[in-house]
Structure formats: structure tokens, C-alpha cells
Structure prediction request, 206 residues.
Amino acid sequence: MVLIVLIALTVSCDQTEEESVARVGAPPDTGEMPVLLTLPPFVLTDQNGLPFGTNELLGKVWVANFIFTRCRATCPVQTAQMVRLQEQLQDHSRWDDIRLISLSVDPGHDQPAVLRDYAKDKGANEQHWRFLTGERDNIWQLSKDGFKLPVGDNPGNDNMPLFHASHIVVVDGQRRVRGYFDGLTDEGLEQTVQGVGKVLEELTPR
Prediction:
């Protein structure tokens, strides 16, 4: 099953984001969250201009997505879903063990000050929801080679001049991807909440 999922995730980077959605999906609900792949270590910059990466996420269950603030296509919906996710998870008894991570695929524009204003406008709890920027090559490589999600230029599309995946990704405290979910639908949001809960159950009880 893991092999099948990984094959589905290896999409061509010249595909549009919409095409990739059709090929990447959440694993069947077997009651468990399989380990799909392990992410490489990374260090980027958060909305406050501070280094932030996998060291800060060690031992946390985190939910990641890829966006950019100038996007007028899928990103507003993705971010709205992350807002809803924050609202639902902040009442969880293990909220301190949860982080939300939004990575900008347009870091040339999305500098820390831009991301800070964006995060504030969305009501992000900055202790739990970080918006990350950095060198474009590093972020694009992390998306393509780390998360196995496509990203690239999309010339001629004013609403979405860059294409990227619209998925919500659940990652455990050992940098292991445990699930990919649709970041645009209520069903995907519900599956994400359930997935986070399942991975949290693996943590050592307080």
C-alpha cells in the first residue's frame, strides 16, 4: 500500500496543481496512519524573521500546506481551511503538541513582514501556526523532493502564476509523513483532524 501511495505521489512538475490533485490521495481508512516517507531536515524563516525548521518541530505532530499570499485561486480556500483546523484543534487536550505550518512557494514576495501581516489578518496563533519563507530553490526542492508535491511557474494565469499542491499534509514528530488530505474540502478537513488525532495517540502520555 505504501509503495502504491508513493508512486501516486511522484507527479511530474510540469503538471498543473489541478492535475496533481487527481493523482494524490489519502490512504484508505484502515484505523492506522501509515508511514509514507521521511522528510529531510530543513531550516527556513518564520513570519517574525526567526529561523524555524524541523528542530523546532521535533516531537510535535504538525500539519503543513503550501501557499502564497498573492494567489487568488486555491490559496484563499486552503488558508480558510487551516483557520478552521486551528479552531478545531486548539481545544484538543494535546494542543501544545500540535503545530500548523504554511510554506510560501513565492518567497521573493512573501518576506517575513508580508507573512506576518497575512498571519495576523487570518487570526493565526503564532505560537502554533508558523508561516515560512526562505530561498525559493530550497522551498521548491522541499516541496518536490521532500513532500513529493509539485510546484512550478504557471505563466499566463494571473490568478495563480505559480502552481503547487493544495493538500494538507500530516507529519509526525520524527519528520515522517503520515497522510495527504484534500485541502479544499470539508471531507479533507475532517480527515485531517482525524489523522492528527490518530498520530497524537502514538505520543507518550503526559
User: Anything to note?
Assistant: Helices lie at 2-9, 17-21, 54-57, 75-89, 112-122, 136-146, 186-200. Residues 66 and 79 are 10 Å apart (CA to CA). The longest strand covers residues 61-67.
